[in-house]
Amino acid sequence: MSTETLVSPAGRSEDDADVFVTFTVAGQLFGVPVTRVQDILIPEEIAPVPGGPPEVRGLINLRGRIVTVIDMRRHLSLPKADAGGGGMCVTVESRGESYTLFVDSVGDVITLPRRLREGNPATLDAVWRNMADAVYRTDQGLLVALHVDRLLAIETEA
Amino acid sequence: MDDLLQEFLAETTESLAVLDVELVRFERETSDATILGNIFRLMHTIKGTCGFLGLPRLGAVAHAGENILGKFRDGELDVTPRAVTLILKAIDQIRGLLAEMETTGAEPAGSDEELIGEINALAGGAAAPAVELAPAQITGPNFSEDGFPVAAELLAEVAEAMNQQIIAQPEPANLPEPPAAVQAPEPAPTASAAPRESEAKESATATSSIRVNVDVIENLMTLISELVLTRNQLLQTQRVQKDNEFKVPLQRLSHITSDLQDGVTRMRMQPIGNAWNKLPRIVRDLTVATGKKIELTMQGAETELDRQVLEMIKDPLTHMVRNSADHGIEDGARRLAAGKPETGIIALNAYHESGHIFIRIADDGRGLDLERIRQKAIANGLATEAAIAGMSEQQILQFIFRAGFSTAEKVTSVSGRGVGMDVVRTNIERIGGTIELSSVAGRGTTFLIKIPLTLAIVAALIVEASGQRFAIPQLNVVELVGVSDRSDARIETINTSPVLRLRDRLLPLVSLRGVLDMEACENRDRFVVVAQVGAQTFGIIVDRVFDTEEIVVKPVAPILRGTRFYVGNTILGDGSVIMILDPNGLSSAAGQIEAADAATGQGKAGAADAQAGDLTSFLLFRTGSGELKAIPLELVSRIESLDAASIENVGGRHVVQYRQHLVPLVPFGDAHQWKESGKQETLVFSDNGRSMGLVVDEVVDIVRDRMAIELSSARPGLLGSAIIAGKAVDVVDVSHFLTQAFTDWFEITAQHKPLRQALLVDDSPFFRNLVAPLLASANWKVTTAADGIEALKLREHGHQFDVIISDIEMPNMDGLALAGAIRNDPRWSQVPLIALSSHATKDDMDAGHQAGFDEYVAKSDQTHLPENLTRAVRLASTRAQAHFELRRAS
Question: Which band of pLDDT confidence, cut at 50, 70 and 90, is reported for residue B75?
Fold first, then answer.
């Protein structure tokens, strides 16, 4: 389990800065506000939910709580991962429920000053534009900051 | 001090604390309707409870406060600091009175006229109903003859209602005298002085009982689940390591963990009876106050509910019982005039069924006034006249659940201020429940609350399909059948729908794998879990069956709520997460899949629209003129493909030999051309060991849809036409063909006398009133009896009946004993006997048949009661006739 954190030297304790937990999905760097993250884990066993929405990869037992695993590749309409490739989970809270985002790998916790923040490019795919809050220019390339609540507002047909 | 009073003090102290906070919040955000709604409801609850505990002084203050809040809500009064201050003052006054009551155990004497006057002046003075001024005149609780405290204002209101005087009496002096039956002597308790407002001390009651936040218990439960898992891991290690010094302490740890788990689990479960405790007293108070006679019956008080759920339904239940007693049940004279027993009945019944907890509140009162609801809805702007004109009765009834709707002609302190049913619905929906209502004018109103088993602990059967485990609530499981290609029990298909022959019945099947769209696996030996949902029985095909486990049902995440296959999920003892299947969802899904597979695409829409609970499986076939015909699948025991050559003609009748018996074959129409060779499709109906075959041209499909006959038919052999799976079909009346086959078979020449006289034996007036008109509408003359003894008296008097329908559970002489008595005496021994009971398990039915009943109809299946009853009457008379003829012949 990689809960080790590294504060990026780029942004010390600037007031106008946001702290993100970063992760990659299909090579793209993403971030979610560190304040929303409850847990980072390597899932042992994910119980699938047949008949459920495709974004739901399954359920895990997180210390006695049942947490829904969201397949980020699927959710972001990205190609499926190669078989056998592991993944990691970033657990976030939204509207009183816990969800965990299944991603390829989890990176550092970084602080990004507001000045690096830019609005979503107009050309961004509609699905992404809805989930993305902003885009940051970082040393490791562009980071897409995700809006947790919008990300998890998955429509389910009643 | 009285338990009830104690509880009231604790509860009200809490409510007051909330009121303080909320009011201050409200003053800042005056536009927030939810806060106001909250405040209003809290105040209303306090007022309502005061009314029943006989606390007129407190009640009057609360009523005045509520009055202002009501004006806020209706926008008649601006929210000014002065108004809020006045309400806060009223709250302080209540708090002072409570503190006094806690020491003395009774409401202090004195008057709050000044404060109430001030409040009423603000609210518009004379506009306030008279009732709240009553306490100025009558102080302290009143006592009826038997020393029972009665709210003074309640008496006044009742007297008012009796005198048919509607609304406001401006001066207390004009209040009519209380009814003669209830005297109002001076109250015994005389408290010292006016309440010590200034030192409104913290209520000690609030601290003497500990209220634990549910979150704390929830958290504890989570930790214990963790502990259990860790314990299991340790035990596993221990097993491998054999003997070592950890063995004994580990065992102790294991026991303690189990006990702890039990304890916390128990902590969260409470019998629903706890929420009912105060109802008898409330009803009794009302009967004393109103002079009505009301009996409150309670069944299933031991049904366990999650604490949180219980808390949430407590108030709605109280409210609804009050409503029934206050508005529903008529007074004795009116009841007698309407031909009903003088004593009205309010029946509470709680039970577990198909993964839910049901609570039924039924009264046999006057029923809801549809016309008034209609007018009220229009007057309150809830709907336009045109819209209402197009609504069904059921839709109109739903208006009572809308906010701001009250049908009470006058505002009373008992009920009816427009907070009632909408609060009830809100509370129930908050815990994921639903509330349904049905009302028959003059016969009564029934509410059915359905609460999901969320958080409840249930036994579940663990099964596997495609390598994944699922839980099925044990409540729904009837039996398990192992199936394989080699054994007798094997899965067959009609068209593409899988079915299983199970003891002369065709059981529709659903493949779990298919429904959930999972990968197929090689395993050919499988299991069928026979599940029951309401009156429906169907089979679920699974790959493996494990054990039964006690599980804690946890609700699924909101994201999964659109998936209707699951009622929840849970963590098993080994730490794995599994889904809990919803048999209800599976059965309706099955209906859709089957319909979608049907040749025409229209089927899907038809089945999708149908309500899951109302679905019946139909066998569709063609015969005669080639029109599509349908028969409820339940009635068909086998479908045989007969060799045309094996059909023999005996005395003008077609028969086939089957296991050393002759089975008569009946064609659908007289014009049927018997085949000389090839296969002849036949639907076989079996009844008590006798079988007959209905020859058909082609079996088309099995579909699931609603049984709704649109056009009744005059043609013999057809019940009428219906739309099933999007197609117009004729629904076949099986009893017609059974009669044909049997009368032919036994060569009965005697004229079939038309049935006329029916005897209905049931101790519940509610049911007698429900069933008698049903029979009457089918041209029966109905005589009723309340128990077996009464029924047999009729026999002594020489009465004769063409059919006897009897309840099983009755006082004095139950249905089984009655059946025995009927069968053992020649006078009535040939009368067809039908059991009508709420107990309809297979064992019950067997016992019924054993006792001599010809047919058994379940009361619980109300929607199908008319059809079932009609069918049973027909079948029973056919069968009794056959029995009789058989006996005569031998």
Answer: confident
Percent of chain A with pLDDT over 70: 85
ipTM of the complex: 0.82
Burial class (CB in 10 A: 0-12, 13-18, 19+), B291: middle
How distant, in Å, are the alpha carbons of B313, B351, B389, B690 from that of B310? Answer: 5, 14, 39, 51
Q: Write out the two tokens for B835.
A: 């059991």
pLDDT for residue B887: 54
Per-residue pLDDT of B287-306, as tens digits, reads 777 888 888 888 888 888 87
Are B759 and B801 a contacting pair, CB within 8 Å? Answer: yes
Query: Between chains, do B559 and A156 touch, taking CB under 8 Å as contact?
Result: yes
Which residue of chain B comes nearest to A59, CA vs CA?
A: B577
Distance CA B207, CA B319 (A): 27
Whole-angstrom Cα distance, residue B248 to residue B376?
Answer: 72
Does residue A44 sit at the B interface (CB-CB below 8 Å)?
no
* Residue ranges of B 452-481 with Cβ closer than 8 A to chain A: 466, 468
Q: Hey, which bits of B490-565 come out as E strands?
A: 491-494, 497-502, 505-511, 526-533, 536-542, 544-552
Identify the residue whose tokens are 């299947």: B581
Average pLDDT, rounded, for chain B: 73
Residues B562, B145: Cα–Cα separation, whole Å: 58
Write out pLDDT tens, residues B25-39.
Answer: 777 777 777 888 888
What average pLDDT does this structure show over B612-639?
A: 73
Q: What is the dihedral of CA B770, B776, B778, B782, to 10 degrees?
A: 100
Q: Is A124 on the interface with B (CB under 8 A)?
A: no
d(Cα B120, Cα B114) in Å, to the nearest integer?
10
- At residue B365, does pLDDT exceed 70? yes
Spell out the long-range contacts of B202-206 with Cβ–Cβ below 8 A and sequence spacing 24 or more.
B203/B9, B203/B10, B203/B13, B203/B95, B203/B98, B203/B99, B203/B102, B204/B102, B205/B6, B205/B9, B205/B10, B205/B13, B205/B102, B206/B9, B206/B10, B206/B13, B206/B14
Single-letter amino acid code for the residue at B531: A
CB B137 within 8 A of CB B113: no
Q: Of A25-29, A154-158, B795-799, which range is least confident?
A: A154-158
Cβ contact, residue pair B571, A61, below 8 Å: yes
pLDDT for B626-676, tens place per residue?
678 888 777 777 777 778 888 888 777 888 887 677 788 888 776 677 777
B563 touches chain A (CB under 8 A): yes
Task: State the Cα–Cα distance between residues B572 and B742, nearest whole angstrom.
Answer: 55
B334 closest CA partner among B382, B362, B367, B360 = B367
Residue found by looking up tokens 């007022």 in the block: B47
Chain A residues near residue B588 by CB distance under 8 angstroms: none
The residue-averaged pLDDT of B850-866 equals 74
Instruction: List, in order, residues 6 or more apart from B164 with CB less than 8 Å away.
Output: none
Q: Are B516 and A157 inside 8 Å of each other by CB?
A: no
Tokens read off for B233: 């891991």
Please name which of B517, B515, B512 lies closest in space to residue B529, comparing C-alpha atoms: B512
Whether A148 and chain B come into contact, CB under 8 Å, resolves to no
Using an 8 Å Cβ cutoff, are B849 and B879 in contact?
Answer: no
β partners of residue B682: B640, B695
Instruction: Give residue-wise pLDDT tens across range A8-19.
Output: 444 444 467 889
> Do A50 and B222 lie within an 8 Å CB cutoff?
no
> 3-state DSSP call for residue B272?
coil
pTM value? 0.43
Quick: pLDDT tens for B491-539: 777 777 788 877 767 788 888 888 887 776 666 668 889 987 755 688 8
| Cα(B412)–Cα(B420) distance, integer angstroms | 12
Average pLDDT value for residue range B799-811: 83
What are the chain A neighbours of B225 within 8 Å (beta carbons)? 64
